[in-house]
Amino acid sequence: MIRALRTAATGMYAQELFVDVIANNLANVNTTGFKRSKVEFQDLLYQTLQTPGVERGLANATNTEIQIGHGTRPVAVVKQFSQGDVNPTGNPLDLAIEGDGFFQVLLSDGTVAYTRDGAFKLNSEGQLVTSDGLLVQPSITLPVDTESINVSTDGVISVITTGNSEPEIIGQLELAKFINPAGLKAIGRNLYVPTVASGEPQFGTPESEGFGRIMQGYLELSNVDVVEEMISLIVAQRSYEINSKAIRTAEEMLSTANNLQR
């Protein structure tokens, strides 16, 4: 009975974490470039009560074993980097990546982080920055007399300035990708930093081999599927309830055993 109590408790702890992850996915359903997380579980150790092949009376060997499991545990929360829907905004500074790749931004400590959020702005010096004011890398600075800006699908940035009808190329966007993007560490603000699991970044221009293309005037939406998350939420709730019922049942059986009278 004690085993049942503890086994069911591991199931309740696991479903609590599952609901926490689902809640975070749903909370970010409108977050630009957000990637949903998925929880993965593993079963725990087993206690073997009967081993197959052991002789039991009359020289007969058992053909099956008896193993009792000890519950479950969450083993990983993995980011799913599938493509989100692309939404038109009409803002020439909004950029979406269709395909693989991350934009590069410079953090305040001098290190580089990576993002799928292309909702860029201009700072007081005409530099391309994120909504938090982090500089896009490689650095792009627009002339003060810029009238219009164009970003091609291969990341070439050109502007038309006052008094000029011909576009002037001022920079080239560079993307980064990872052999295992699921190994990236999320640090909030739609940013990721590499880890040993993700591998080192590989750099390239948009539309080059293995990299996606740039879509100007669009933003990539979250890849969270609300219907799928709601179904997962119902499954987690029912699993939590059935594990709590297993605990109540084990407790009632223990109570019955304790109240036995000769």
Helix/strand-derived class? alpha+beta
- Outline the biggest β-sheet: 3 strands, antiparallel
Distance between the termini: 21 Å
Mean pLDDT score: 92
Would you write up a description of this structure?
- This protein is of the alpha+beta class and 262 residues long.
- The chain folds into two domains: 115 residues, no CATH class; 135 residues, no CATH class.
- It has two helices and 20 strands.
- The chain has a three-stranded antiparallel β-sheet with strand order 8-7-11, with no helix packed on it. The chain has a three-stranded antiparallel β-sheet with strand order 12-13-14, with no helix packed on it. Strands 1-4 form a two-stranded antiparallel ribbon.
- The radius of gyration is 27 Å and the shape is elongated.
Which properties best describe this structure?
32% strand; 3-stranded antiparallel β-sheet; 2 domains; single chain; 2 helices; alpha+beta; 262 residues
Write a compact overview of the structure shown.
By secondary structure, the chain is α+β, with helices and mostly antiparallel strands. Helices cover 23% and strands 32% of the residues.
What topology emerges from the helices and strands here?
Blueprint: H1 2-27, E1 37-43, E2 46-50, E3 66-69, E4 72-79, E5 86-88, E6 95-98, E7 103-106, E8 112-115, E9 121-122, E10 128-129, E11 135-137, E12 146-151, E13 156-161, E14 168-172, E15 175-177, E16 185-188, E17 191-193, E18 202-204, E19 213-216, E20 218-220, H2 226-258
Antiparallel strand pairs: 1-4, 2-3, 5-20, 6-19, 7-8, 7-11, 9-10, 12-13, 13-14, 15-18, 16-17
